[in-house]
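As the next step, I selected for study one protein, both as residues and as discrete backbone shape codes, as given directly below:
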Amino acid sequence: MAANTPKTRSESVFGLVYATSAFVIWGLSPVYWKALGAVPALEIIMHRVVWSFFFLVILIVLQRRTREFVEVLRNGRMLLTLFATSIFISGNWFLYIWAVNSNYLLQASLGYYINPLVNVVLGMVFLRERLRKPQILAVLLATSGVLYLTISYGEFPWIALTLALSFGFYGLIRKIAPVGSLVGLTIETMLLSFPAIIYLFYLHSQGTGSIFHVSLKLDLLLIGCAPLTAVPLLFFTLGAKRLYLSTVGLMQYIGPSGMFLLAVFYYHEPFSATRVWTFIMIWAALGIYSTDSVIYYRRET
């Protein structure tokens, strides 16, 4: 995502606060999803979609972006594009929440660590972007880490790769779709809300739905999926407008780092020597990638 040049020092400080808040919320979000561990992941996603849509519509009105929202709704081609992105983002959400509540948080963090490198490859394949030598080295090093984990540990990191690819393709399509992040996400959740509401009403009619059947705390947690989805997105947008692109690029690792620390030190997921070396290779690749990005961005500006 592009970021404008900060105009004042105070803007940069506010940008850092906004962006850091967004990434910290994303990094600590597994604690929230764990609190919903008794609810099936599919049902959580349905609630996340529906409540997020209502919450985002309120934000659209408050930010006076109703006209932009309506214009996108009238554009059939744009709606089709956002329908495709809604499939990718909902699949990403579902797998992420399932992974967190199935004790695969380490793999989830790995997926979001390698996502920037996946974006580089997708840009090369679909947008014909040329890779710089450090980028090639970073991609090869990350690939080696994944292969090492697969061969040595006998565990193919399908969760990590699926999360990285689904979010990568989501970003790729949204990159070429001329729509703002808030309006785009609102329409994506709107498109997903139709089947979600039908599914939730079905669960309610069968008496198997979680909301309004278990406890007030659980009801509030399910409804709270909306601000948990929208607020960090809004913070990120506000922060990105006030910071350099290279700064935002480096800060994006706060999220998966939070997931990693939670997985190892709080939830005590198994962290074998093989996984240690895999993460070391991934972190080295990200170090090369980030350093190259900063140097290239400063040279261009």
Notes: Residues 9-300 form one domain.
